[in-house]
UniProtKB/TrEMBL annotation:
Protein name: AAA family ATPase
CDD domains to which the protein is assigned, alphabetical: CHD
Domain Guanylate cyclase, residue spans: 36-95, 298-378
Keyword Hydrolase: no
UniProt-listed PANTHER family: GUANYLATE CYCLASE DOMAIN-CONTAINING PROTEIN (PTHR16305:SF28), TESTICULAR SOLUBLE ADENYLYL CYCLASE (PTHR16305)
Organism: Rhizobium mayense
Highest taxon, organism lineage: Bacteria
């Protein structure tokens, strides 16, 4: 190794404390050792440093020489006595004597002897002639020196219970003497003579039996060990690793110091190192982002502290005070996120920066009043950030501060002014707002009114882009920052305008105190912490807003989509109420013209329900919108921003021109061009300044003398002004800005670098370009989906950069951006479906765009937003050329056209003839049809039957015209429902459904589950046997659950039970099957589980196992509680099912009038369950109740009841031809009751007996028992002995309806 290499090696090693080097050399030596500890620091060092700094460069040099000699002398003496220097801490040095190879007694003797020699030795003198005096403390305990950190950021730290012993002994100061801890005194025993130095403090006066000094030997490290420890070389030295330059490392620099105190750290805790590791991992990104340097993480006699310095080479910046404060705020948040409290002081000033120590052990350090002041400021108030005046002066243009007052700073004899920063940087507040004072006052007045009256206020700020809406909102937040009002802000987004609650995302993020820079897991934990214990179980409802993937509770999983929507709204309103509690709440939403429907719904509900809320929406002018009108009905304040006055324009322009006044000719020119447009005015002023078109003389800005005002090359529009500004960038930088514009208003830096079209656009190059655009006022730093990035300062800037590109260039970039998102596997793709669809649409790839629109529609539907999922899907259809009318008349016309084309394409063919259609080849159709199939259920559930019909018909027409594919069975299945509903032709509808089943592959999967359900739920009971339907539903359930088609798997589970009941199977079989299927559903599909539970409890009621015959409640469930929420939902099918179930129980229970009431409620909802098994139940028992009441009672409305029942009888008889085995007994029962009411007893008895016999033939136990009951009633009414009663009772018992049997026996007085 050459002399120079050897020197460099020794220099690298010297930055690692000896314990790390010894352990690196001899790994068998345990790093965790008991040792004697010696602490040495300089008395009055703050005063000494200030004295030297006041003498300028010469004083710095003298201080450097003094410190070098001081610490080098201490280290030499320590090493000569066998001690190991462990760490520097300001003006202090900690050393240790391990017990390895000796006893604790011997280690303490060696340390004490060393301390005595150091205190007795003559040391350097101060310029005043005074000697440097020391404090010294001797302690004992476990001590561990370790290397921590990540990547290139490595730190060494010393921890252990020995430091706690040292800290306790250091509570007393004894200048020039050796304080001894209680633990050390106990071990030294008679070898030490001591005296008291105050309460709980002892000083060593003499020492006996100290062994002869044995110097510490530190052999050179291997190259591998040295490379491992090279990360400990401090940043200011790493680039100057040359021993010849060491004398030049001492500098006088202006720095900003961030001093972080870390309480609640137990030095002796077994997990102390892991906690320190987590602290470094948390704060390192924040420090590196601001180009700071972690000088030291130390655990000394005062506790654990971090010292971060800004302004040191090679990363000094003109705005280091700004960086220091931002870093302090971000670090505090990062530490809070891991549960670590902190107190932070920030100070700025001139400091000595340089090396201390020698080749045994050295460090890079700083000494100045600013360092000491930062250390003292952190102690003023726990958990806060305290800044000195110099820092505030250097950062106030970028950061807002709140003055706290003057504080007496311990140790400095100063009463200094102190400030604390607000959390957010100044938003667009680099200049005073000019104009808009009138509008601002009106908004503030509305807020004050909300606060005083408790009423909410709604304010709309309307103006074209660039007129100052965003600037007005920023000024509003700025002025209220120190007030009692809580202020929250959000912004809507054009690209994500269909994403639910996108405009409220920022509001909720601020409300819960979340940091977008943190990983999702930390943000999730922070959100849970911010929610009260009462609200935390509902956290998963916020996934729709924050996309934090909170786990679902069983209660939430059981909710229907409408119920979830209402619960989410209630939760969001509750959070807003909490924020407004005790004062007023200002919520602003910018770019509100892009708000989605759910955001408008929340705004409407919040304005009505949150006392003290002032909601301000800034938007571009919109056409008359019912949503705005709804909010305006409550007394909204509508403000339309007009152009600035000439005086206001002059004031605004001067902020860019660098002058105090503006010459009249130049002012007139600006007035004529800008026409009161604020953003245009600023851009014109910037162009004048940047292009040298003006002179400033004696504070007055005027047109440059070599130019005439009529020849001044100024742009005529805002877009031209911005384009000209972009043109002044170098070519590759322009490309970078254009690439960014294609990405959107906000974009990650990594994305722009990845898709940049030029070969040399590496991330570092792109980063420099974007940083330059930031400095030029075009971009501002941002954080997007846990990635660093930027956002455009104004939408106009983004639009102009984008419009400068050719269409071909745009398409190329949008495709590359979409590819980047698809390939970035670290991202949760579901968050970017809308973004991907946007970029692929702009890239001219509608098929790929529709794929993501379909996924986004499914995602949004899963969150309970049916209307928005439908809007997203219909947008996708329009991309593929399939427009859908929005009005009822248009839908009717479109349906008619589709049906005409279907008829023409079919010709004479029947559904069965389509089994061998050619394969589909058209890519657009192959994308469009699955999209329409996926959104058709959304139309059905949003109660838009005409839209559902159009989508079903269009899918069939496209299939007939272009051929079949794997999804074609679903097309036929959906159209089967449409055809049956529109034409009433149930046989042909069933034929389409049968075709869907015939096309299923041999291995049944998700498609079979869907098609089987449609077949048995809508068709089979009309044209097949119920037994076939039960078997098919069972197969569909297994296929669905096995293939992951959970929804239709559960639908089929429910259908099995519904059909068992419809077939009149034994009640015990219905109960056992229903119980098993309800368990398999497991609450995964709530509406399906609802119907299952309804059938199960109905069967239990019939069996006499509920609290009353006409009630569904039993010991396991409460009817009102269990079914109330579903009855309030939009699931009309399930609501109708409940009404028909209650109708059936009332009719079977003989409560005819109640049965008619339930029937009336069900009939209102008939459009939502027509053709389903429950329609047969409705007609059967509605007719039976009306006819029985007319025949067996004496109602005044008997004639009307007979007419009502007659209609039902006719309906059932018309259906009879479709499925005679199932429907004939029901038709005979109704006709028999009709004859009984007409006094035709013989005919009635014949029909009812026939009904019972035909029901017995098919095994329909319910119809047989009910027919015999009706026959007994006819006999009784005719004055005959009800000979059919015993048969009826036996039939009910055979069915398992013991509750019904007992009720009937009691009524007739039978046993």
């Amino acid at each position: 190794m050459s002399d120079r290499s050897l020197l460099e090696a020794r220099l690298i090693e010297s930055f690692a404390p000896p314990p790390l080097r010894l352990f690196g050399k001899e790994p068998s030596i345990a790093p965790d050792r008991r040792m004697a500890l010696l602490w040495l620091d300089v008395v009055g060092f703050t005063r000494i440093t200030t004295h030297f700094l006041a003498r300028g460069p010469a004083g710095i040099e003298n201080l450097a020489n003094l410190l070098e000699l001081h610490f080098a002398g201490l280290i030499d003496m320590i090493v000569a006595h066998g001690g190991e220097p462990l760490m520097f801490a300001g003006d202090g040095l900690l050393a240790g004597w391990p017990c390895a190879g000796s006893t604790p007694h011997e280690a303490l003797l060696r340390a004490a002897a060393c301390a005595q020699q150091i205190l007795a030795a003559s040391r350097g003198a101060l310029p005043s002639g005074e000697p440097i005096e020391l404090h010294a403390v001797l302690a004992f305990g476990q001590c561990h020196t370790a290397e921590i950190g990540t990547g290139s950021l490595r730190l060494h730290v010393t921890v252990g219970n020995g430091l706690a012993d040292l800290q306790e002994a250091s509570a007393t100061r004894a200048k020039g003497q050796l304080l001894v801890s209680a633990a050390a005194r106990s071990i030294l025993g008679d070898a030490a003579t001591v005296r008291s130095a105050g309460r709980d403090a002892i000083v060593l006066t003499s020492l006996r039996g100290a062994p002869d000094p044995t110097p510490l030997a530190i052999p050179p490290l291997t190259s591998e060990a040295r490379e491992r420890l090279a990360g400990l070389v401090p940043l200011p030295v790493a680039l100057r690793l040359d021993g010849r330059l060491l004398d030049w490392t001492a500098e006088l620099r202006r720095i900003s110091v961030v001093f972080v105190a870390l309480p609640r750290l137990d030095h002796a805790s077994p997990d102390i190192l892991s906690r320190l590791e987590s602290i470094v991992a948390a704060i390192a990104p924040e420090v590196l982002e601001q180009d700071g340097f972690i000088q030291q993480l130390r655990v000394d006699e005062r506790g654990a502290n971090l010292v971060i310095v800004f302004g040191i080479p090679p990363v000094a910046h003109a705005d280091d005070p700004v960086r220091a404060v931002r870093c302090a705020v971000d670090m505090r948040d990062a530490l809070r996120a891991i549960g670590q409290p902190s107190s932070i002081g920030v100070a700025t000033g001139t400091a000595f920066c340089g090396l201390i120590g020698n080749d045994v052990f050295r460090a890079w350090t700083t000494y100045s009043e600013a360092v000491n002041l930062a250390a003292r400021l952190q102690g003023l108030q726990q958990g806060t950030i305290q800044c000195d005046e110099a820092t505030v002066r250097g950062a106030q243009d970028a950061i807002s501060f709140v003055p706290i007052g003057h504080s007496q700073v311990r140790g400095l004899d100063l009463n200094v002014p102190v400030w604390t920063p607000r959390r957010q940087d100044r938003a667009e507040l680099d200049e005073l707002m000019h104009g808009r004072e009138r509008e601002l006052k009106r908004i503030l007045s509305a807020l004050e009114d909300a606060a005083q009256s408790g009423n909410s206020r709604f304010v709309i700020v309307e103006a074209e882009s660039g007129m100052g809406k965003s600037r007005l909102l920023a000024e509003l937040h700025h002025r209220l920052a120190t007030e009692r009002s809580t202020t929250l802000g959000g912004i809507a987004d054009r690209i994500e305008r269909h994403v639910p609650y996108r405009g409220w995302r920022g509001v909720l993020t601020q409300l819960l105190g979340l940091d977008a820079k943190q990983p999702e897991s930390q943000r999730r934990a922070a959100a849970l912490n911010a929610l009260s214990p009462e609200l935390a179980p509902s956290a998963a409802l916020l996934n729709a807003v924050l996309q934090l993937d909170f786990p679902e509770t069983a209660e939430l999983e059981a909710m229907s989509a409408p119920q979830r929507t209402e619960a989410r709204l209630d939760l969001l309103v509750s959070l807003l109420r909490r924020a407004a509690c005790g004062g007023s709440l200002l919520v602003t939403i910018d770019d509100a013209q892009w708000l989605d429907d759910e955001s408008w719904t929340l705004a409407t509900k919040a304005v009505r329900a949150v006392r003290g809320l002032c909601l301000v929406m800034a938007m571009q002018p919109m056409e008359e919108d019912a949503r705005i009108e709804t909010l305006s009905d409550g007394g909204a304040l509508r403000l339309k921003l007009e152009g600035l006055s000439d005086e206001e324009q002059d004031g605004l322009a001067l902020t860019r021109l660098g002058a105090e006044r503006i010459a009249p000719d130049l002012a007139n020119l600006l007035h004529a061009r800008a026409r009161g447009h604020p953003f245009f005015c600023l851009e014109l002023a910037r162009a004048l300044h940047d292009e040298g078109l003006i002179d400033v003389v004696d504070g007055t800005c005027r047109i440059a003398q070599h130019l005439a005002d009529d020849r001044l090359p100024l742009p005529d529009s805002i877009h031209a002004a911005v384009a000209r500004r972009i043109d002044r960038l170098d070519l590759e930088s322009q490309v970078t800005l254009k690439v960014a514009s294609a990405a959107g208003l906000r974009f990650p830096t990594a994305l722009v670098a990845a898709v940049h079209p030029t070969a040399n656009a590496e991330q570092a190059v792109v980063g420099r370009h974007l940083a330059m655009h930031h400095r030029a006022g075009m971009l501002q730093p941002d954080h997007i989906d846990e990635l660093d990035g930027y956002s455009f300062c104004h939408g106009i800037m983004r639009d102009v950069a984008y419009e400068l590109m050719l269409y071909g260039q745009r398409k190329q970039l949008h495709k590359a951006i979409a590819d980047w998102y698809e390939q970035n596997s670290a991202l949760d793709m579901s968050r970017f479906y809308a973004l991907l669809a946007h970029h692929l649409e702009a890239a001219g790839e509608p098929v790929r765009a529709v794929h993501y629109l379909r996924l986004e529609a499914e995602r949004v539907f899963g969150l309970g937003f049916v209307r928005q999922s439908l809007s997203i899907g219909l947008h996708g259809a329009a991309l593929l050329g399939s427009e859908v009318p929005a009005d009822g008349a248009g839908l009717q016309k479109a349906i008619g056209q589709e049906m005409e084309q279907i008829a023409a394409l079919l010709g004479d063919r029947q559904p069965a003839d389509l089994i061998d259609l050619p394969q589909l080849q058209d890519e657009h159709v192959a994308s469009l049809v699955p999209l329409l199939l996926s959104i058709a259920p959304y139309a059905y559930q949003s109660q838009q039957p005409e839209l559902f019909a159009l989508l079903g018909a269009r899918c069939l027409r496209l299939t007939l015209a272009h051929g079949q594919a794997v999804f074609t069975p679903d097309v036929y299945a959906m159209y089967s429902v449409v055809h049956a509903a529109m034409t009433g032709d149930r046989r042909t509808g069933a034929a389409w459904s049968d075709l869907s089943l015939q096309l299923q592959p041999r291995v049944k999967g998700a498609s079979f589950a869907r098609c089987a359900f449609i077949n048995v739920w809508f068709h089979n009971h009309w044209v097949g046997t119920l037994e076939d339907g039960i078997a098919r539903a069972k197969a569909g359930a297994e296929a669905g659950l096995a293939s992951g088609e959970i929804v239709y798997g559960c639908f089929n589970l429910t259908t099995v039970v519904v059909l068992l009941a419809a077939a009149g199977r034994p009640i015990d079989e219905v109960i056992s099957t229903g119980t098993a299927h309800l368990a398999r559903n497991g609450g995964r599909v709530r509406n399906s589980a609802f119907t299952l539970l309804l059938e199960l409890q109905s069967a239990r009621a019939l069996a006499g196992k509920t609290r009353a015959f006409d009630q569904l409640s039993d010991a396991t469930m409460d009817e009102e509680t269990e079914f109330a929420t579903m009855l309030q939902s939009r699931f009309s099918n399930q609501v109708a099912g409940y009404y028909t179930a209650k109708l059936r129980l009332a009719a079977l229970g003989g409560d005819w009038r109640s049965a008619l009431s339930w029937a009336e409620q069900a009939r209102v909802l008939l459009p939502f369950f027509a053709g389903q098994p429950s329609e047969v139940v409705l007609v059967h028992y509605h007719g039976a109740a009306a006819l029985a009441l007319a025949a067996f009672g004496s109602p005044e409305d008997a004639q009307a009841l007979r007419a009502e029942g007659w209609d039902c009888a006719d309906q059932m008889r018309n259906w009879e031809a479709l499925n005679e085995a199932w429907l004939s007994p029901k038709a005979d029962i109704l006709e028999g009751l009709l004859e009984a009411g007409a006094g035709q007893i013989a005919a009635a008895q014949r029909l009812l007996r026939a009904a019972a016999e035909r029901a017995a033939e098919t095994g329909h136990l319910e119809d047989r028992a009910f027919a015999l009951e009706c026959l007994a009633r006819v006999q009784q009414t005719a004055g005959e002995i009800p000979s059919a009663l015993p048969e009826a009772l036996a039939a009910y018992r055979a069915w398992g309806a013991e509750g019904k049997r007992e009720r009937l026996a009691c009524e007739f007085g039978a046993a």
